[in-house]
């Protein structure tokens, strides 16, 4: 018989309800890797065959997820992509393993790759995690990012570079054959690199449609770096699944997104821009002059405004955002949710949904809700994140993380 665990005396935030949901007293029964029962009453079990864990009123919510992850960036990462690419693979993978563990210990049970620095980073980490060799989240693996010849990223030697739809299709097929399931394409510039402004558009409809079709054949999907309106609109009309950044949204872009409301997600990465324009990166060389030149101030204002428009249009928003810089350190992932509340006008539960019930279907897994039949990926915290979302950033309040029905992390200071 599959292992059974009863989480007793909990406060359950299911993330199955509306954004007004509050944690309620209840029990959660886990059988094997799935949630078997969620009850507002005491669930009776035979303690001889079921492990009973009394949570003493701690909150149980779905494990969190991040949809824009670079697991390749070590804990001490400072923009040194070339150095990371050259690190001996064995040593580098230990850095990657440390990042994977950090995600899990931070309450993150699901991540979607947004491009790697050494080609197999996501795949090797996923394999080691799935085999139980190292602790880490569920991973939708990405491969090297894909750039268009002459476009942003094409010259660094770290990306796959393509010239046309045929080449792009080949790259997508090749990455998928290695096991990649979230392909990351660069279809716009980025203000931080002045010669490639955010308004620039790379690739075209034909290329993206070919990439989407090829990925689909392999059970994979396309994600894009798209900052300007025109690139966002192109992504939406060609079948891209996840649009990263979407800093600028004109009416065309918004209309194109609305037309695909049921199968597209937007992952802004708001905390990253917030940290940049707030000067948090200054100790690492991002001077006020550089930030000014990047246009990030305008981009940040525009992104906040766009976030409100996306919400009003009912387009699903994801949490996730390039964590791993020293000014947005690994382990601080839930800061994104705080920004959504403070700047995006979301309720705490709505912000939590961006990391749970919105993210499960984007990742293609039965995760993100505390609901019978769903995978038992759960986070147990003290306090009420539905009242104060910053609770999720506090390591001292984090009691335990369950993944696949097993305790993947137990805070040594606070036993569950
Ligand atoms: Zn990124």
TrEMBL record:
Pfam families, per database record: Amidohydro_1
The keyword Hydrolase is assigned to this record: yes
The keyword Lipid metabolism belongs to this UniProt entry's keyword annotation: no
Sorted UniProt keywords: Hydrolase
Domain of life the protein comes from: Bacteria
GO function terms (MF aspect): hydrolase activity, acting on carbon-nitrogen (but not peptide) bonds
Record InterPro entries: Amidohydro-rel, Metal-dep_hydrolase_composite, Metal_Hydrolase, Metallo-dep_Hydrolase, OTAase-like
Coiled coil start-end: none
Domain Amidohydrolase-related residues, every copy: 59-406
Protein name: Amidohydrolase family protein
């Amino acid at each position: 018989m599959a292992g059974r665990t009863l989480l007793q005396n909990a406060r359950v935030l299911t993330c199955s309800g509306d954004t007004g949901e509050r944690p309620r007293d209840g029990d959660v029964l886990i059988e094997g890797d799935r949630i078997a029962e969620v009850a507002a009453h005491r669930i009776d079990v035979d303690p001889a065959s079921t492990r009973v864990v009394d949570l003493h009123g701690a909150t149980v919510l779905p494990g969190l997820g991040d949809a824009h992850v670079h697991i390749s960036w070590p804990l001490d990462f400072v923009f040194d992509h070339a150095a990371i690419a050259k690190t001996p693979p064995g040593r580098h993978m230990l850095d990657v393993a440390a990042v994977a563990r950090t995600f899990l210990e931070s309450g993150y049970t699901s991540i979607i790759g947004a491009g790697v620095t050494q080609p197999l980073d996501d795949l090797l980490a996923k394999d080691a995690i799935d085999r139980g060799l190292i602790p880490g989240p569920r991973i939708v693996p990405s491969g090297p990012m894909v750039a268009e010849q002459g476009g942003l990223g094409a010259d660094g030697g770290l990306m796959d570079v393509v010239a046309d739809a045929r080449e792009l299709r080949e790259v997508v097929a090749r990455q998928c054959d290695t096991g990649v399931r979230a392909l990351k394409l660069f279809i716009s510039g980025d203000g931080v690199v002045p010669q490639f402004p955010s308004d620039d558009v790379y690739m075209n409809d034909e290329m993206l449609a070919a990439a989407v079709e090829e990925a689909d054949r392999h059970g994979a999907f396309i994600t894009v770096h798209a900052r300007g309106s025109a690139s966002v609109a192109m992504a939406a009309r060609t079948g891209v699944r996840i649009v990263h950044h979407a800093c600028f949204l004109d009416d065309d872009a918004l209309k194109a997104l609305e037309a695909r409301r049921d199968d597209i997600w937007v992952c802004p990465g708001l905390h990253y821009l917030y940290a940049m324009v707030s000067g948090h990166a200054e100790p690492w060389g991002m001077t006020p002059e550089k930030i000014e030149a990047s246009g990030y101030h305008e981009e940040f204002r525009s992104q906040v405004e766009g976030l409100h428009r996306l919400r009003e249009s009912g387009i699903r928003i994801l949490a996730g955002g390039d964590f791993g810089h020293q000014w947005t350190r690994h382990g601080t992932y839930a800061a994104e949710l705080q920004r959504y509340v403070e700047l995006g006008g979301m309720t705490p539960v709505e912000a939590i949904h961006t990391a749970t019930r919105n993210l499960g279907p984007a990742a293609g897994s039965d995760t993100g809700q505390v609901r019978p039949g769903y995978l038992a990926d759960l986070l147990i915290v003290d306090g009420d994140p539905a009242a104060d979302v910053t609770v999720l950033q506090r390591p001292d309040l984090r009691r335990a993380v369950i993944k696949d029905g097993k305790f993947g992390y137990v805070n040594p200071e606070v036993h569950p």
